[in-house]
Design brief:
4-stranded mixed beta sheet, 38% strand, mainly beta
């Protein structure tokens, strides 16, 4: 499996969208995400990763917490987490930011680490091919190998 990659990303929030609206990463990548708001206070909740952030306009730092732990808000410059399981995870605004707030969504796609799976599949295919090849030439002995001429004996 290749070494996981560190990804530096900036996600900008504005009524009622994120830019980028879709993030593609590989399983095992470490994400370093900076958040910015262009207009009003926005949230950034990442489903399946227990991350919630509060972003204030024109501020470099933002607040973050892990809701399931009951943690309080802490001020940070970036979110850092590992993209674990492959799948699609929505990120959405978690602070009411206006009338179209419920439609402010983005998507993080965590792709499987294909070079690892391709390598395992190749090894399995190679092993299976060697097993099959070892049995191909071992059928019943031919007549000349068995010591007969191949002609039927008449009695």
């Amino acid at each position: 499996r290749p070494a996981p990659t560190a990804r530096d990303l900036t996600v900008t929030a504005r009524q009622y969208a994120y830019n980028p609206s879709r993030i593609h990463v590989n399983s095992g990548d470490t994400l370093h995400i900076r958040l910015a708001s262009l207009d009003v206070v926005h949230g950034f909740f990442v489903e399946g990763h227990d991350i919630d952030a509060e972003i204030h306009p024109q501020q470099k730092n933002f607040l973050v917490r892990h809701p399931s732990n009951g943690d309080g808000w802490r001020e940070v410059e970036e979110l850092t987490f590992v993209a674990g399981r492959p799948g699609k995870y929505r990120y959405r605004c978690s602070h009411t930011c206006g009338t179209m707030h419920p439609f402010m969504l983005g998507e993080m796609v965590v792709d499987p680490n294909l070079p690892f799976h391709a390598g395992v599949g190749s090894l399995a295919g190679l092993f299976l091919g060697m097993v099959i090849a070892s049995f191909v030439g071992t059928g019943p002995p031919r007549a000349e190998e068995a010591g007969t001429s191949g002609e039927e004996n008449e009695t």
